[in-house]
Amino acid sequence: MQRIRGRSAGVGGADGRRGSQIGGGTLRDLLIGAPVFWVRANGTLVICIAAALLVWIDRRRWFAGHALLWFDAAGLAAYSAYGAAKALGFGVAPLPAFLMGVLTACAGGIIRDVLAGEPSILLRHEIYITAAALAAGLFVGLSLLGLSVWIAAGVAIAAGFVLRALAIARGWSLPAYRDYMKR
After folding, report:
1. CB 28 within 8 A of CB 103
2. Which residues in the chain come in under a pLDDT of 50?
3. pTM of this prediction?
4. Residue 25 main-chain phi, psi, to 5 deg
5. How far apart are CA 182 and CA 130, in angstroms?
6. What are the pLDDT digits (tens) for 5-51?
């Protein structure tokens, strides 16, 4: 996380953040046969670069304490629902669409961890992927029940964010795989 928190050289840290910001969506688009979302227009990369530079330049003023965790929690929930929605929109079956939602939200974090030399989110106790799975699963399930996209997205995003927020605020975590091995 040191690299992502901006203690590295500017360009290296910004590249790490760009990779994590677009990584999940890129993998999703490649897997579902969609045009890769950031290749056809400059806007997405401009936003990613601007966000990375903002965090790198002014991290103490705007991102002190746990603010970055809260922004990440909001993005995790939103991108889970969005990824599932995009997959469903491209004709992907419900279960793979659910997985595409989780992939969209979490693959960027995995890329970030690899670039930062940190243990992967997959190996930590945090309720992170579970919150993404809740948001993606609710979106797919509510969509299959016939709810409008906006209602399904609102409920799914709210639920995913609340679960992640409670995990952050209360220190909730899940047992790691190796904890089960000790029993």
Report:
1. yes
2. 1-18
3. 0.82
4. -65, -35
5. 23
6. 444 444 444 444 445 668 899 999 999 999 998 898 899 889 888 87
**What DSSP letter does each residue of the chain carry, written as one string?**
-TIIIIIS-HHHHHHHHHHHHHHHHHHHHHHHTPPPTTTS-SHHHHHHHHHHHHHHHHHHHHS-TTHHHHHHHHHHHHHHHHHHHHHHHTT--HHHHHHHHHHHHHHHHHHHHHHHTPPPGGGS-BSSHHHHHHHHHHHHHHHHTT--HHHHHHHHHHHHHHHHHHHHHHT-B---HHHHHT-
Angstrom CA distances, 45 to 68, 149, 175, stand at: 20, 26, 37
d(C-alpha 95, C-alpha 74), whole Å? 23
Q: Which residues pair with 56 in a beta bridge?
A: none
Tokens of 45: 């990369």
Domain boundaries, given as residue ranges, for the chain: 3-178
